[in-house]
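U., I forgot to send this yesterday:
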Amino acid sequence: MALPGQRAARQTDSGFFVSLRRLGSAFLATLHSRAELLARELEREKVRVTRLVLLGVAALFFIALGAITATIFVIVLFWDSQRLVVIGFLTLLYLGLGAGILSYAKKEAERSKRPFSATLEELKKDRHHFTRD
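Result:
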């Protein structure tokens, strides 16, 4: 036969384990949501970096094309008059396209937020929530 004090102690122990289990469940749910947020931010960052690389490649292509055209322009400089106008125009066009794409890529890189800022902000909120009295 159990004494009245032992029965109360068992109920308190089981209540403690229930509370501990709930706390663990809440912790895992929080950890899961933060991991999902991190995964989404990683995906977004991957898309942004891929876009920047493609823009950089396009800019380099047009700048190289402009340099080749400029070389042809110098070679043909002493030929008949109309060829120079066309080659000069194409050189300026390609260099302008390359510079424009490069400028756009630079602005895009500067415009983006700090990577994983949403995850860090949520973790800061969690830490503040658990440390306040």
